[in-house]
Specification:
Low-confidence stretches: none
Shape: globular
Pfam families: GGACT
Organism: Streptomyces luteosporeus
Helix content: 10-25%
Strand order of the largest sheet: 1-5-2-6-7
Oligomer: single chain
Distance between the termini: 32 Å
Protein name: Gamma-glutamylcyclotransferase
CATH superfamily: Gamma-glutamyl cyclotransferase-like
Number of helices: 3
Radius of gyration: 14 Å
CATH topology: Hypothetical upf0131 protein ytfp
Structural class: alpha+beta
Length: 142
């Protein structure tokens, strides 16, 4: 199941500073969304970062808690570009902190929904697996 709109735009799963009530939600998302619903990203774990978390893919993991955000159509391209900049996601750049990938999340009271999610880029993920602090319960409270 997907939640693409007529133009093929996917919603975005957020789990850190972009969640409602957090600093970057107010900065980048407030007033630019049409829906925000609780969701879980299965097959991932959460690690503490310097002031923000990193989701790392891990087969069989219970998942990461967050929200599925549907961006307002008129703001979609602008907001997605701002999110890419915030997450230091630059396609093809080995220095990127995150990669933006399509994954399925489970929405509260519903089934799977395809969306964009920012996962730790592989060099960052390797470092976190080796020496990072995993957050219990898959939820960042920072």
């Amino acid at each position: 199941m997907t939640a693409q709109d007529a133009a093929g735009r996917l919603p975005v799963f957020v789990y850190g500073t972009l969640r409602p009530g957090r600093c970057n939600h107010a900065l980048l998302l407030r007033g630019r969304t049409v829906a925000e619903v609780p969701a879980r990203l299965p097959g991932a774990v959460l690690y503490e970062g310097p002031g923000y978390p990193y989701a790392v893919a891990e087969e069989g993991a219970a998942g990461v808690r967050g929200e599925l955000i549907t961006l307002a159509p008129e703001a979609y391209a602008r907001v997605l570009a701002a999110l890419d900049a915030l997450e230091e996601y630059r396609p093809g750049d080995p220095q990127s902190l995150y990669v933006r990938v399509v994954r399925e999340v489970r929405v509260a009271g519903g089934g799977p929904v395809a969306c964009w999610v920012y996962l730790a880029a592989e060099p960052v993920a390797r470092r976190l697996r080796a020496s990072g602090r995993r957050l219990p319960g898959g939820e960042w409270t920072g």
